[in-house]
Amino acid sequence: QVQLVESGGGSVQPGGSLRLSCAASGSIFRGSFVGWYRQAPGDQRELVATITSYSSTNYGDSVKGRFTISRDNAKNTVYLQMNSLKPEDTAVYYCYVRTWGNNYWGQGTQVTVSS
After folding, report:
1. Terminal CA-to-CA distance of the chain, rounded, Å?
2. pLDDT at residue 2, as a whole number
3. Would you call 100 exposed, middle or buried from its count of C-beta atoms within 10 A (0-12, 13-18, 19+)?
4. What is the pLDDT of residue 27?
5. Mapping DSSP to helix (H, G, I), strand (E, B) and coil, where does residue 115 land?
6. How big is the CA angle at 23 (ends 38 and 87), to the nearest 5 degrees?
7. Which residues contact 74 (CB under 8 A, 6 or more apart)?
8. Strands 109-113 and 10-12
């Protein structure tokens, strides 16, 4: 049974940075589509950043140029470097992994950006 464990969330002032990590208990990252999504209160879950098995990346418009997604298949871990954080980035961030046969979600980690 696969578990995704997220870490790195917390509170930061506007303009600050955080780095999120998501580690899988199983060896599922190689060949998988992985990414980060977020959900603010009252909003639907939205795409933040994704990275394919070929390391092709995609970013939501609101985070493009500020966030960077990366992956380490050997460690079964995906990262999200978040720079120049804004209050509107405040949300619960979820790790996502799509394999050939299954979809997996982390339980989420809170990111709060406020002065």
Report:
1. 40
2. 84
3. exposed
4. 83
5. coil
6. 25
7. none
8. parallel
